[in-house]
DUF642 domain-containing protein (Eleusine coracana subsp. coracana), 374 residues
Amino acid sequence: MADIMSSRCVALLLLVSVAAQAASGVTDGLLPNGNFEQGPAKSELNGTRVTGKNSIPNWEISGFVEYIGSGQQLDDMILPVPGGAWAVRLGNDATIRQQLSVTRRGYYTITFAAARTCAQADTLNVSAGPESGVLPIQTVYTSSGWDSYCWTFKARHSTVWLSIHHPGHEDDPACGPLIDSIAIKTLRSPPRPKGNMLRNGDFEEGPFIFPNTPWGVLVPPMMEDVHSPLPGWMIMSDTKVVKYVDSPHHVVPHGSYAVELVAGRETALVQEVSTTPGKWYALSFSVGDAGNGCQESMIVEAYAARSRMQVPYSSRGTGGSKRARLEFAAVDKVTRVVLQSDNHHMKHDGTLCGPVVDDVSLVSVRKHAARRLL
Ligand SMILES: *[C@@H]1O[C@H](CO)[C@@H](O)[C@H](O)[C@H]1NC(C)=O
Ligand SMILES: *[C@@H]1O[C@H](CO)[C@@H](O)[C@H](O)[C@H]1NC(C)=O
C-alpha cells in the first residue's frame, strides 16, 4: 500500500514538474544535454557513428553524426573537448536538432562551440522554425581550435525545433565540424539610454558566454539589426566576424562586455541611426585592448556621413583604453555609424585578435565654428 501511494506521488510530482517545465520554457544557459555528456548506448554506435535517430538523449539526429570523446584522434589532430568529455561531429548532410519551449515572438540567441576538422570551406546552417542562418566557419580564430559562435532567431511559435545542419560535400563523408556546448539566452531589447542616440552602445546586451570559456563568442556577419545577437548592431562582412568579450576573461573599457575587432578591414561594426540632414553630431567611443596578449600597433577607423577618423592605439596586450570623438554633419535622414579595425593582428599562439571598442555614444551637438567650413 505504501509503495503504491509513493509511486502515485512520484507520478504526480513528475506530471507537475513536466507541466511547469513546459510552461516556463527554456532558461538561459546550456540546453538539456547541450554538451552531449549523455551519449548513446554502445549498441547504438558503430565505431564512432551514431546509428539511431534518438540515440543521443534530448537530441534527434540525421545523417552522418559521430560521437567523439575528448582526446580522440581525428585524422591527424587531437582536440580536447571544451564542455566535458564528449562532443558530436557532423559529417556530410548531418543534422542535430532539439525541440525547445519558448515564448512566442521572443528573441533568442544560441551560442555553441565548433571546431573545424578536415573540411576546407565549412558552413553550418542553424535554424529555428522557418528562420535560418548560414554561418561561415572556415576561419579558425582561437588557437585551441574551438570557437564559439552565436545566432539569433525570433520565435514564431511557442515550440520550435532548433537544428544545426552541416551541408558538407566532402569526399570523406565524416569530414565536418565538431559541435559542443550549445546554450540559449533570451535577448532583451536594450533601452536607449538617455543622452545616447545609439542602441546598446555599451554592448551590455549580447550572446551567452559560458563562464568557463575564456575566448569570447564570435558574432557572424549579420546584415540586419533586428535579428542581431548584438541588438542594435550589424556585422558587415562576407565571411568574417567580430568577437564579443566579457570582463571575467578580458579587460573591457566599460561595463561587463565589449567588442574585439578581430578581422581587420574584412568586417565592420555598423549601426543605423535617424539623423537630421545638416545637423551636427558627435560620435564618441573607447578604443583599447582586451588584455589578452595582443601586443600590436592598432588603428580603429570610424566613419559617419562624410567624416572619418583614424584612432591609433598602441597595445601592450595588458589592457587599457582611450576615448575618441568624431564630429560630423548628417547628410541623410539615416546615418550609418561604422567602426572598423584597419589591420589584422595575431597573437604568438595563432589566435586572431585586435582592438577593442566599447561605450559608443552619439549625441547631437551645436556647431558654430564648423559652419564656416560648409
Ligand atoms: C558498421 O559500419 C561499417 C562501415 O560502414 C559497415 O560495413 C558495417 O556493416 C556496420 N556495422 C553494423 C553493425 O551496422
Ligand atoms: C537552412 O536550413 C533551413 C531549414 O532546414 C532551410 O530552409 C534553408 O533553405 C537552409 N539554407 C540554406 C542556405 O541551405
